[in-house]
């Protein structure tokens, strides 16, 4: 027996009461023991005393004792053996609840000694006449596999589970499927061989059984079955259609997780459907239940919104006319609001842009600073996305600047710069307004944006040299992005108005090359200096060359990853928009693994991409022969990256665009990693910084959040806009 | 799947802890306390630290937390947490620290029953109540009785026992509509829709087969032409007892109801919403020291009906000292803690309208931050009125013994926290 504690104190009193001759007193003592256990006190010393109370007719007391056993069996393995007898006896009890309870508890005890006694009762319970016992036993097999896989295989439990898929009771089927999937998951992560008997292959026969059980079992069971259906590979398009038709009614289920699981199955099997009108019909039926999910509690809503965001990337037409339901309520939690904003921009079109803009303007006057900033960013995205609405967006921004609330003005300036990037020389009229707010700006991003605008339109701003002079004077105190922009803007100014700005350009080049600690700034200064001194004409064509127009990307993740995530709708991965390997598994995932996921996902497209890039690289080299143009563009592409990373509101968009060109670089040079930004709603701030200066130095395109540390595979998708940048970067 | 389940109080103390799987130690609870409870920065409902993900739901100063190490089904985990909360509400009437502490034994029993090895199991409240009870002594239920329970817990109609008997067979149907409105300052409707719930209390003997009919446009258009008051439902969702395949084929709602109270269906409607109350606010800032309010509430329904418990929350600037207000009916009071004027009107007959006029005095401030003007929020209830126009057309009950049953239908339209008017 274990060493007994001193004859006083709480545990001693409990021990006395546990051995009391009165039933009520004993039961009360057990309750108190459990209470102590919950708050974290060590009551393991009472093990033998509690164990004595196991043999009882009182079901509640039995449950309490079992609860205690589950917690301490591991620490007292030699004592657990005393309980085995009662357990085995209980599995023969006439009361099915007692039988189920015994088998359920035995499975979780996790003591080697118990395990050996588990197999026989389990065998019996799997064949029990009562479905409640059978469904409990089915899960117990999964528990056993988790502990000692060989026992499961030796005893033929797997075969038995496979038989139980045909059970007459739908709940048993559901739990069997859950158990088999659980075993499948742990078997596939542990070993790589396909021959492992634990691998759960869903055959055509299983499929029909699952479809039958689907309509009858409980909500949670439906999710388990739907998840299994998602893994089934349809033989032909007939079968895919059949599955879709059988699963569609589940959209009407009250439980949000059933709806999302059904969406998942449909999204997977729709790939195999060839009949266009059926696809259309399925997509049409999908919309209302997705909208309904927005009236669920905020957490469920958030998961739904993240998934809707993914679905929209694949099928932008799903919720075309539903933008209004995504309008934020004043009391929505921030994480919901941010997601709604993102989706609203996705759904924006010529027809609803007015409603959207007045809504966004409303949000921009709310209290929460983060939300206000994101709303203003959304205005910018709308302007870039819809040409016809750009002017209205600019007017809204001007209204906002007029409020003179510091963070509103700063964000508006950042956004204006993006609008200039998209519509060069269109809204020059507002430059004076922007410049008059110069003193208000204290954030690097806003400063850098305004400096960029001044440099870009230096020829049209009379006092450009004065304005830039302010920043040149404080050059060394500014942050690097501001320094880089100041440098470029001054050089632009010089090229446009060489007469008046000789002094300032000398000064800034001097400071940048001599007093600055950032190699990026220094190197850029040297490049400019040499360019200007050797061939001002070349410098002009390098620095003042027109840049490619920006656009809002349609997808935030690569095509391959998008498909993979759509196959996991409702899961954590799809809520994060990250492949699951990045946040589960044993510690950090190897970079190779992450890369291979991306590569497998769209091997072909990335191969093609690489070829394209190489071809483009050759082209650029040709250009190099007769002109300095590529080097030209090489420099702005650093700028371009700055612009890009600042544009989109949501974190995901950030990483998606700004890291793409780099990803290509990475894949060409076989570099190892591309860390991305944090997935949480609070993430975007990290993403920004990373993207800012990669044009000059191939540094990682994002900053990994310390708490999350997520890696992401880099599988870029083809986009005209990106292509151009890729070409240029191919040179590096 | 769910590896562990915790309930924390406001301070981060563990009230309930249950590890379903062994990939965690109990100390994982401390991680949550440090990273989430005592970290005010956290705003996302899911936190992933390393490979561990915490899903949390806050309710009445409690944290209901599920922990997992896998790529779990996030929607399922949250639905499960909310189901747990609902079960607690149904068992204890409320869920807060006190009720959790007082009933922890029962809660352990419950969470073991509704979840096994991280997989949610039967969580139908009615069924659970039949074998997990608040009376402490359940001296070994007779084996036969248990068999019935387990059959119910796992059966094809796991929501109903077969041997229910009532002297009087009655069914009550409550149609409850929650109106969502946001109206812009100019008085245009930005968004108006209805979240409807149909609650049913069925006290019917045997295994009755029910058929339920609404004035659903899609059904009516097919069968009887010429009825104009049909309602367009954007989406319907049903209790698990309803045969979804039947609904998918011909939109008929047929089911075997659980015994007692349950939510038969939820629906959503966005077209032709009748807004029961119309608010006309005129709020003007006079200089920097005063704001004048002139708010009119108009009813928009039949004079026989009335709106009850009407509560308007009218925001005032943060630097308000006092608000002097007169209301034609009801009581209006300035609540400094929330920066709102609360105007309560116990009863408002159809066709009636009433006005509140007031003047808020402000202190002078140095910051020139403009007042953000949060929306006016209106709560109310209107009996026997549906904003969507939905009507229950029939409820047919078929049973072997073909008894007569009495059916009652009630309608209620209400708003709480969702009826917002900007100004």
Automatic annotation (TrEMBL), chain A:
One of its GO terms (molecular function) is clathrin binding. InterPro entries: AP_beta, AP_complex_bsu_1_2_4, ARM-like, ARM-type_fold, Clathrin/coatomer_adapt-like_N. Keywords: Membrane, Protein transport, Transport. GO terms for biological process: intracellular protein transport; vesicle-mediated transport. GO terms for cellular component: endomembrane system; membrane coat. It comes from the Eukaryota. The keyword Transport applies. Residues 697-732 are annotated as: Disordered. Residues 9-535 form the Clathrin/coatomer adaptor adaptin-like N-terminal domain. It is found in: Endomembrane system. Residues 713-725 have a biased composition (Low complexity). Pfam families: Adaptin_N. Adaptins are components of the adaptor complexes which link clathrin to receptors in coated vesicles. Clathrin-associated protein complexes are believed to interact with the cytoplasmic tails of membrane proteins, leading to their selection and concentration. Belongs to the adaptor complexes large subunit family. This is AP complex subunit beta.
UniProtKB/TrEMBL annotation, chain B:
Its main location: membrane. This is Clathrin adaptor, mu subunit. The keyword Manganese does not apply. The keyword Nucleotide-binding does not apply. GO terms for biological process: endocytosis; intracellular protein transport. It is found in: Membrane, Coated pit. Keywords: Coated pit, Endocytosis, Membrane, Protein transport, Transport. The lineage of its organism: Eukaryota, Fungi, Dikarya, Basidiomycota, Agaricomycotina. CDD domains: AP-2_Mu2_Cterm, AP2_Mu_N. Residues 168-422 form the MHD domain. One of its GO terms (cellular component) is clathrin-coated pit. InterPro entries: Adaptor_comp_med_subunit, AP2_Mu_C_sf, AP2_Mu_N, AP_mu_sigma_su, Clathrin_mu, Longin-like_dom_sf, MHD, Mu2_C. Belongs to the adaptor complexes medium subunit family. It comes from the Eukaryota.
